[in-house]
Specification:
This protein is an alpha/beta fold and 307 residues long. Helices cover 46% and strands 23% of the residues. The strands form 4 sheets. Strands 4-3-5-12-6 form a 5-stranded mixed sheet, sandwiched between helices. It has a 3-stranded antiparallel sheet with strand order 10-7-11.
Amino acid sequence: MLKSRQVEAFRAVILSGSATEAGNFLGVTQPAISRMVADLEYQLGLKLFERRGGKLLPTADGVTLYREVERSFVGLERIEKAAKDILERRGGELRVAALPALATSFLPMVTANFVSARPAVDITLYGMTSPSVLDWVTTGRCDLGIIHERIPHSAITTYELPSMDAVFIASRGHPLLAREVIEPTDLHGQDIVALAAASSARRRFDAVMVTHDCVPRIRTESPLTMIICGMVDAGFGCAIVDPFTASHLPWRNLQVRPFRPSIKFEWSMIVPSFSPVSSLAQDFADEFSGSFSQTLRMLDSCQGTGD
């Protein structure tokens, strides 16, 4: 039976051209290399080298055998490199799903920074509604998701991201933009673009309106704040949305005002609970959470400036 050390010696001689150099490469003596190569030739019944001018030159049979040996070694080296990348958290695959407001700008920015230090990492990004993100994570189609809710579910582990106070948005020229702070009574009778009724943020908004005996005119709805901001930016009505979507994307006409009393928008990062979180996913989650928190602090400091 062939021994792996004999094959290593054969390969080292091919690559270096001498038994002495091969011995230095493998950390053994020149006679040990010569013996292992001779044993390999005997076992295979092949003449693998010829001596010419102090060099060991491979025969035609030796070259043919080397091609097969190299294929095996390349495969082993790829496995070793993959293991090292995993150990050093530089390689692997990651699938991330998030709301479009994140997936079109902020998430790609975080991802670009993340992969710049990990050139062997492959990341796929998806943009979809929170229920779809939940579905893709619980069914294993995504490793990590960011949603606009905090949804209790046995198939996920939830990491809460910082919540934020909702803001009022309107297109330039809207009469309510003359106010420094928008209150519920200001919205009575106003055309509103609202979140879909099933969302927790919409339920909180409705509760505030009922408490203050206000009845806005809800003209259209959407499950995505990005679409709501687009409608308002185009000049249709006004809305109460999260400050991230309102301020982080490059809207043309949108202006922002604080809204009181506070209506909280909650964000969460979710991973499947039925399998361990990979070190790659954990690193990405940590980096995203840090960048997200920093961005929200910047938005808080800018809120109320009018733009």
